[in-house]
Every structure is written in C-alpha cells, then in structure tokens.
Amino acid sequence: MYTKDEMKLAIDRGDFDVYYQPKVNTENLVIGYEALCRWENRSPSIFFQTAKIENLTLTLAKYIAISIRLDMEKYPLLR
Questions:
Q1: CA angle, corner 69, sides to 34 and 27, nearest 5?
Q2: How far apart are CA 38 and CA 20, in angstroms?
Q3: Could you read off the pLDDT of 21-63 as tens digits, one per residue?
Q4: Residues 19 and 38 sit within 8 Å (Cβ to Cβ)
Q5: Does residue 60 contact residue 33 with C-beta atoms inside 8 Å?
C-alpha cells in the first residue's frame, strides 16, 4: 500500500500516465477508447485501493479527466 503523501506527490508531479485501449464493435471498427491509468512500476489495483482508502479518488479522477481532455486536444482521433 502507498501512503497518502506518496499519492498526492505523484499526482502533483504528474507521475500517472493515461493510456488508451481501443473499443471495437463486432465489425472490428473502433467505436471509442477506454482510458487506463498507470503509475510507473506500481500495481493499479493497489494504488486505486490506496486512493479509495485515503479519500484521493476524486483528486485522481480529476487528474485523469484533465489528462484525457488535453490528449483529445492533441490527438483528434481520440474524439
């Protein structure tokens, strides 16, 4: 488990990365993307559990939402 301070520092430094996994329909056409949040060398199940326990879920969600919005501006295909 990670500490609240570690999580807050990682969010403030932008240590979390957002990756996009295409969602395809039965005709193999991309119909959207799923955003996946990763923290280098850390287990997603553990850092999400820490975020929940330490009441950082909303803070992390805001960080992810802002990252997605910025990526959508840079990469129009994500829209």
A1: 35
A2: 11
A3: 999 999 999 999 999 999 998 999 999 999 999 999 999 999 9
A4: yes
A5: no
**Helices 4-13 and 57-74, packing angle to 10 deg:** 20
| Token pair in block for residue 19 | 């990756």
Size of the chain, expressed as the number of residues it contains = 79
Question: What's the number of CA atoms in the CB half-sphere (13 Å) around residue 71?
Answer: 15
Q: Where are the alpha helices (DSSP H) in the chain?
A: 4-13, 44-53, 57-74
The two structure tokens encoding residue 4: 């609240």
Question: How far does the chain reach from its first CA to its final CA, in angstroms?
Answer: 35
What does pTM read for this prediction? Answer: 0.86
**3-state DSSP call for residue 37?**
strand
Q: At what angle do helices 57-74 and 44-53 cross, to 10 degrees?
A: 130
